[in-house]
Amino acid sequence: MAPNPNQLPVITFNTKTLNRSNGAWQSTSHALRGALENYGCFILATDKVSSDLRDTMLELAKDLFHLPMETKVKNTSDLLGFGYGKYASMPLWEYFGIEGGATIEGTQSFTDLLFPSGHKVFCETAFQYMKLLSEIDHCVMRMVFDSYGVDAKECDRMIDSTLYLSRFMKYRSPREGEGIMGLFPHSDKSFLAVLDDDVKGLEIKMKNGEWIYPEPSPSTFIVLAGEPFMAWSNGRIHAPVHQVAMRTSEKEVRNSLGLFSFMRATVEVPEKLVDDEEHYLQFMPFNQIEFLKYVTTEEGKASKCAIKSYCGVTSAGAD
Ligand SMILES: O=C(O)CCC(=O)C(=O)O
Ligand SMILES: [Fe+2]
């Protein structure tokens, strides 16, 4: 698949492509893996999540941002990017994260905390929506493992250990004198992210340095690989730098939703992905939750590619 800077590859998940005994599974798996290697992301077209559910979720997420600040800050977490976030350095951006967001327990305790008098519709919708996103995440994992010829049991081990962070994000338009940057350029510290939004703003840097600007659509998501997935693949999968910019001059608010995956189990490069030539072992086994803590240290913050300085093997990994 030749990289095309203006367009991301589109991968379709439907009953045909998701049936392992159908030939379409294999061709889709290879295309998906190629997309992650060349672009680090792709557009996922699927009817797995109805547009009604997506609209309802995007609408309900707005309720969170109307809460008083003293309620918002109750959503705390020790993990980077979880909890509630609003930073002076990125004043347009605000987010809420749910730890264990694809489970009813996690979603319920978040709802109880933020809406003490109850918000059944929010809880049920968020759980239903994020659970579907977690199923998409599982399918992506299975296809990647399958395409590399890595044992499905290893994939199950990883999926079973996944801690999901569901995140509700809001970007307001800049006021006079403010910059347009909603979220600064970064590569994700999650394994995978499944992203959804209602207004354009996500910008992804390609390997050749050009940026692409995916258009939101009610029938597509963006699936994006993070640094830990790159390490697991021994450097094959790309973890693209991306950012959010509020370029429009109109008074506009951008809402986005995402499900981010983190492995509790040790992440280890599969033997299949190591050889003596091009793919000597580039990353030592690591714990992704410990890696998240490392990212907040001075060394982690100063590093150009945190996963390489955390567990990269050779000088090829140094910044
Ligand atoms: O808001 C978005 O679309 C992207 C958010 C993002 O990149 C992140 O939370 O890491
Ligand atoms: Fe990101």
UniProtKB/TrEMBL annotation:
UniProt KW Iron keyword: yes
InterPro entries: DIOX_N, IPNS-like_FE2OG_OXY, IPNS-like_sf, Iron_ascorbate_oxido_reductase, Oxoglu/Fe-dep_dioxygenase_dom
GO MF assignments: metal ion binding; oxidoreductase activity, acting on paired donors, with incorporation or reduction of molecular oxygen
Record keywords: Iron, Metal-binding, Oxidoreductase
Parts of the chain that traverse the membrane: none
Fe2OG dioxygenase domain segment(s): 158-265
Top-rank lineage group of the source organism: Eukaryota
UniProt record similarity statement: Belongs to the iron/ascorbate-dependent oxidoreductase family.
Name this protein carries in UniProt: Fe2OG dioxygenase domain-containing protein
Naturally occurring in which organism (per UniProt): Lactuca virosa
